Amino acid sequence: MLTSQRKKAILDALERDGQVLAGALSVEFGVSEDTVRRDLRELAAEGRLQRVHGGALPASPAVAPLAQRQDMDVAAKQRVARKAAAMIEPGQVVIVDGGTTSALLVQCLAPDLQATVVTHSPSVAVALAAHPSIDVVLIGGKLYKHSLVAVGAAAVEAMSHIHADLYFMGVTGVHAKAGLSTGDFEEAYVKRALAQRAAETVVLACASKLNTASPYRIGELDLAQTLIVDAGADARLVKPIEKAGLTVVKA
């Protein structure tokens, strides 16, 4: 089997099964595990998959720079954002993550909504500055420019004093076995800390993030209680997530 044929078979298996194991592939292809690992390395370098111990998972497409991500899946993100905004009740304290879907979420808030939004995203805070009845608490720290959010020890320390009703979490990967993931180590730590400060964590994701993984794991799926995904998501991708215990709401 040619290298190109093996790589296509690997990608087909990832789409079908959600993961591949190097040992099983070496038996299937009749080549050494070193050969399979080389194929996986090359595919990972192309951004086609995410390598993990013993094999690989589908790679998330949502790791591009912010300016590029703003133009990805816009209609789906708007539907997710509207559904998320409708969950907020008057008087609640709500944590809003950074990211493109969160930016749309704050645009959907009713002008008469009275609530408190806690965020480590300067963009989210500025977007809410003109809202007449929402108090904004901005968490500071080192600016992670890829997502325009504050990270680091100062941010985590500030979060420890918060008790929120809801946390709207942005992720780049949602996988039934690999859990919730993102593209930056410090950002993963901050998201995990924020989830611990809220009564309910709601993950916001368009369909392209389902059954994918990024380099840094935020936590297992049970770190959250609810996933909001656009209605166009394939049922085959949603079912394993529901089976793992997460409530899936389609927007």
TrEMBL record:
Taxonomy, superkingdom: Bacteria
| Assigned keywords, A-Z | DNA-binding, Repressor, Transcription, Transcription regulation
Q: What protein name is recorded for this chain?
A: DeoR family transcriptional regulator
Q: Return the InterPro entries for the record.
A: Carb_Metab_HTH_regulators, DeoR-like_C, DeoR_HTH, NagB/RpiA_transferase-like, Tscrpt_reg_HTH_DeoR_CS, WH-like_DNA-bd_sf, WH_DNA-bd_sf
- Which molecular-function annotations from GO does this UniProt entry contain? DNA binding; DNA-binding transcription factor activity
Report domain HTH deoR-type positions: 3-58
Coiled-coil stretches: none
